[in-house]
Amino acid sequence: MSTTDGLVIIERLNDVSRYTRIALRQFPKHEKFILGQEIRESILTIRRLTVRALKRYYKKTTLEDMDIEIEVLRHLIRDAVNLEYVDLRRYEEWSRLVNEVGKILGAWLKNVKRHEK
């Protein structure tokens, strides 16, 4: 993945972060500081792993960690829906944005694995 491709995933993460801030406004006050904070921390972790992967020569382990953290984020978002903090329309948009990041990451990971062989 080139630097410009790395910028694409960072831009998509910015979109996820922006939308997350909007979605978290609907959370009850007590959950903004519990589940909301866990969601924000998960996104921050994904951002850190993205930067780390862009800087490292051997990227596979970092990308796999990033893939795991994206799955954790998906579960946290589903928890918010199951607790009815977010409506289905907002959930669909939020999931679409996270899935875009997942697709970009999947392509990046596939490319790294191909170059290993």
Lay out the secondary structure.
Elements: H1 3-24, H2 29-32, H3 35-55, H4 60-82, H5 88-116
Describe this structure in words.
This protein is mostly helical and 117 residues long. It has a single domain (3-116), classed as de novo design (two linked rop proteins) (Up-down Bundle). Helices cover 85% and strands 0% of the residues. It is built from five helices and no strands. It has helices at 3-24, 29-32, 35-55, 60-82, 88-116. It is elongated and about 50 Å long. The mean pLDDT is 93.
In short, what is this structure?
This protein is an all-alpha fold. It contains five helices and no strands.
Keywords:
de novo design (two linked rop proteins); mainly alpha; 117 residues; elongated; 5 helices
Number of helices: 5
Biggest sheet: strands, sense, closure? none
Helix content: over 70%
For this structure, what is the CATH homologous superfamily?
A: 23S rRNA-intervening sequence
> Overall 3D geometry?
elongated
The CATH class is identified as Mainly Alpha
Give the SSE string. Answer: HHHHH
What is the average of the pLDDT values? 93
Low-confidence stretches: none
Number of separate structural domains: 1
CATH third-tier fold name: de novo design (two linked rop proteins)
Assembly form of the protein: single chain
Strand segment tally = 0
